[in-house]
Each structure stands twice: as structure tokens, then as C-alpha cells.
Amino acid sequence: MRSYQPDLTPPWKRSAPVPEVPAEPDLVVEEVATGFCGAVIRCEKTAQGPTVTLEDRFGKHRVFPMEPRGFLLEGKVVTLVRPAPGGPVRPTRTASGSVAVPGARARVARAGRIYVEGRHDAELVERVWGDDLRIEGVVVEYLEGIDDLPAIVAEFGPGPDARLGVLVDHLVAGSKESRIAAQVSDPHVLVVGHPYIDVWEAVKPSSVGIGAWPVVPRGQDWKTGVCRALGWPENTGAAWQHILSTVHSYKDLEPQLLGRVEELIDFVTLPE
């Protein structure tokens, strides 16, 4: 008969138990050793033991062993385990990659706002960040261009309890947009932008099913030129609806846009 051997390890040196979490698809975790953060793509059995494949928001894949205490979920150490076969799978993330809150009610709208240049920009932001914005009570409005941005900001009257975030297309050095943005100087206003001529370009070509966004010669309407180069009917409204239909989550957008939108959301939702 085997004798009982007590655990003589001092309590302060014992590892506290951590929860086991099924590695369901789209669960976003961070690997503790490397800091790599991504969504679960799949789990596999290997000769060395079970592994999990993660995809970060830039589309990069990494494979990690599913070791005990090997991952962080919402900042807490967990052990990933293979999900039960045939078990129910429900989305755990919103389209932006945030934690989904089933049944959450929309918050009463804040005084703060996010302004974008046009309707297409607003529709794209809604498609990916809509759930987050409703929970935070952030309203997105579009300006139809930014030529009158300084006057619009002055009329809005930003303050500590009404911050204003502005997303600008083609915000690069020397552009008209950069000169207009430089005229806005207010601690309660944040103007950021992406380098693309139009927000269409912020959708990854691979998501749309094209090799790359075409280069349109100067002097031509950019959207019409894109339709011509791609052999699409010259109906920019219909073209945009096709492009928008290919966007299912943040993974379909370029990081230069992702970071700027999230920066604006953080800015307008800071505590008063």
C-alpha cells in the first residue's frame, strides 16, 4: 500500500490554481511568454501535445503549446483547454475584437462626439465599432469634408465633459487636410487621420478580393477611377456597398485605420 506523502512546499511558494478556459474560436488571449495577443483560430493535437493557433489584428498567425498558466484573458492568467466537441459556440467578441456583452443596453448618448469626413467613413466605423459605441454612448457624425473644420469645432464648443474626436482622410504631411487640421488647437479636441486618399483603401484588398487598390492618376475622381481600373460599373454607391459587405470584423481593415479609431474612442470616453 502506497503511503501518503504530504506536500511540504510552503504555502507562499505554491502555485495558485487558475481557471481552465475552452479555446473557442474568436476568443482573444495573450501568450504570457511572448506577449503575442490574438484570436483563437483553431486547436490541434500534436506529438508534443495540444496547440492553439492565434491570429493578431494584423493577420499574423502564431502557434503555441496549450501549457498550464500559459495565457492571459482580460489580464488574468488562465489555462487554455480544448473546447468540448459539439459544444455550443457563441461569439465572445464584437466585430472590433472587444469583449461582447450579450443583452447590454445602449448608453444614453454622451455630449462628446466623433466626427468623420463622409457617410462611407461613418458606415465603416458603425460596421466594426457599432456595438462598442452604443455601449459607450458615443455618437458618430459625418461632415461631408473638412474644409470648414475649425468653424465646426468652434460651433460644437468642446469641453471637459464634451470631448470631440475627428477622423480625417489623407492626413499626411503637406496635404490640404493636414493644413486644416493644424488650425484646430483645443485640449478637448483630438484630430487624427489615416494616410489613405479615401476610406475605401482602409479595407484590405484581400478582403475585397482584389490584388491591390489601383493607383488613380491625379485629376481624376478617385472612386470613379477605382471602378474603371477594376472593371466595375461606374456606380460608386454600389461599389461601396460591395466593399462594405466584405467587412466582417477588424481583421478586414488596415491597422492604420484601426489604431486611429480606437484612439478617438478612448479620447472621447475618458472620465470627466
From TrEMBL:
Q: Which domain of life is it from?
A: Bacteria
InterPro entries in UniProt: DUF3097_C (IPR021447), DUF3097_N (IPR053883)
Report domain DUF3097 positions: 20-83, 113-269
Name used for this protein in its record: DUF3097 domain-containing protein
